[in-house]
Design brief:
Order of helices and strands of chain B: HHHHHHHHHHHH
Shape of chain B: globular
Largest interface: A-B, 28 and 37 residues
Radius of gyration of chain B: 21 Å
CATH class of chain A: Alpha Beta
Number of helices of chain A: 3
Strand order of the largest sheet of chain A: 1-2-3
Distance between the termini of chain A: 42 Å
Radius of gyration of chain A: 14 Å
Number of domains of chain A: 1
Distance between the termini of chain B: 23 Å
Structural class of chain B: mainly alpha
CATH topology of chain A: GMP Synthetase, Chain A, domain 3
Oligomer: heterodimer
Number of strands of chain B: 0
CATH superfamily of chain A: Fe-S cluster assembly (FSCA)
Helix content of chain B: over 70%
CATH architecture of chain A: 2-Layer Sandwich
Order of helices and strands of chain A: HEEHEH
């Protein structure tokens, strides 16, 4: 039985900041789900704020690295980028919406 | 340790010359406006030389540099042969300088300059088309890139034939083909490229989602149809076809503006930074240019044609480029100097990597200059034109210093 919690994974990803908007990916609402199996393999299901983002490769790599580095006991980390449902600002935390002028 | 995948990203040192040279051409190009007389009309060799200085040395140079970065991102594959960009900018630079010399001083060298520019464009076209060929998802942006590049090549071939007519005496009616050359390069390449890229860049920077893409699809189809109709009408000597083609292209711009409005309405990011303000001014200029173009279709008013071209090139194209430079250059610098440090130390955000006050001055002076000079051209009042140009020169100076500031950030 793996003792890693979803919250640990989310906390690790909070260290990944989108340099264009200045917020971390969790408060942006870009992390859709985290799946942890019994062998401590972690799968992060995430999206990006736009398709064709020049940071696409880097952001997914940073998420993978952040989980591997900051979550003790993790084995393999898989990142799945999905486009459904499409991200929109309503998925972001209120502080993000306020800073963007969307609240 | 954090690692960074760089599969799609061309080296910074390879792209930087495009932005440095382009910005220098922009600044010097605004100074050269002082030596033009709008009352001479668009067939004046001085104006033709300036147009090539500005469109090849600034507009094309920056677009090529931006496309080196953006095309792999858009199609999600690496460049076919990215090293070719090492030879594109020197060829384009020497070709442009030679062509301008041909227009202003020695017409005999014009074909040589044209040949160098044509070679640069063909190399760019080869890499771009081979890269796009690898795309699995054929989006509208991919289609516009293919169409735009084919029009560019056709436009440059037409231009090259015109240089042979001017410099080597080949019998071609230059005044008849001039309009098609401009339509192919400006409408077929520059405007179509901006249409395709804005479908990616406007939602990306404005965080806009869930908008209808119908208008941009109609704009694309009409623009392609209009450019082809203009070319065919020129080939067969059919003036009414050229008139109809201009109308179709204006309708295309109308649909494009509708698309921009739909994206604007749903954007989540409401802050009006230098990028957003540049877009507002650019699209406002496009509306004005289109209205003046409609007026010019129904009369023989040289000042209206020139004013329309002024707002299209100096208002729309220039502000879309300068506005995006405040996004693209910080990103390239950040990617080169800071992305390897992510996770190890605090790295700057992109909006900290451009000089805000200088950018504000650049925007205000340039915008005031474009409006004043444009009104001067329209009213045939040269003092106002030269006054506007003076403001524009100072604005372009701020742009030049801003680009140097951004490129030096963190060095």
């Amino acid at each position: 039985m793996c003792e890693i919690t979803k919250e640990q994974v989310y906390d690790a990803i909070r260290n990944v900041v989108d340099p264009e908007v200045g917020f971390n990916l969790v408060e942006m609402g870009l992390i859709y789900d985290v799946v942890i199996d019994d062998d401590c393999n972690v799968k992060v299901v995430m999206t990006l704020s736009t398709r064709g983002c020049p940071l696409h490769q880097m952001l997914t790599q940073w998420v993978k690295d952040a989980v591997e580095m900051r979550v003790p006991g993790v084995k393999n980390v898989e990142i799945e980028v999905v486009w459904e449902p499409e991200w929109n600002v309503s998925m972001a935390d209120d502080n993000v919406k306020k800073a963007l002028g969307a609240l | 340790m954090f690692s960074v995948s760089r599969d799609y990203a061309p080296p910074f040192g390879m792209i930087a010359p495009f932005f440095i040279i382009g910005t220098i051409f922009f600044f010097v190009g605004t100074v050269l406006l002082l030596f033009l007389d709008p009352l001479h009309g668009h067939f004046d060799p001085m104006i033709a030389g300036w147009a090539h200085w500005f469109l090849l040395g600034f507009v094309m140079m920056i677009i090529f540099g931006a496309m080196a970065q953006l095309i792999p991102v858009v199609v999600e594959v690496g460049h076919h042969s990215v090293d070719l960009y090492h030879v594109i900018w020197p060829l384009l630079l020497i070709g442009t300088l030679t062509m301008v010399t041909g227009f202003w001083i020695a017409p005999a060298v014009l074909p040589y300059g044209g040949l160098l520019v044509l070679t640069a464009m063909l190399i760019y076209l080869y890499d771009t088309l081979m890269t796009l060929k690898k795309a699995e998802n054929i989006t509208l942006t991919v289609k516009t890139a293919v169409a735009a590049n084919l029009f560019l090549t056709t436009g440059i071939v037409v231009g090259f034939v015109m240089t042979l007519a001017i410099g080597a005496g080949i019998k071609v009616d230059v005044s008849w083909w001039l309009g098609t050359h401009a339509v192919l390069v400006l409408g077929g390449y520059v405007v179509l490229t901006i249409m395709g890229l804005s479908l990616i860049l406007l939602p990306m920077f404005g965080l806009a989602h869930g908008f209808d893409e119908g208008p941009i699809n109609r704009a694309f189809n009409l623009m392609v149809g209009g450019v082809i109709l203009h070319l065919v009408s020129t080939l067969i000597g059919f003036s009414a076809g050229r008139f109809l083609a201009m109308l179709i292209m204006l309708v295309a711009i109308g649909f494009y503006l509708r698309q921009v409005w739909l994206i604007y309405k749903v954007r989540a990011r409401k802050e009006n930074d230098i990028w957003a303000r540049s877009m507002f001014f650019g699209y406002g200029s496009l509306v004005l240019a289109a209205l003046l173009a409609v007026v010019s279709l129904f009369g023989d008013w040289e000042n209206v044609i020139l004013a329309s071209a002024w707002f299209l090139i100096m208002g729309f194209v220039t502000f879309l480029i300068t506005g995006h430079l405040y996004k693209i250059i910080p990103f390239l610098v950040w990617f080169e100097r800071y992305s390897p440090l992510v996770g190890k130390q605090k790295v700057p955000m992109l909006n900290e990597m451009y000089p805000k006050k200088m950018a504000d001055w650049e925007f205000m002076l340039s915008a005031a200059g474009v409006v004043a000079a444009g009104i001067g051209i329209l009213l045939k009042y040269n003092d106002l034109y030269y006054g506007g140009v003076a403001l524009l020169i100072v604005g372009a100076g701020f742009m030049l210093v801003s680009v140097k500031w951004m490129l030096s950030f963190g060095r």
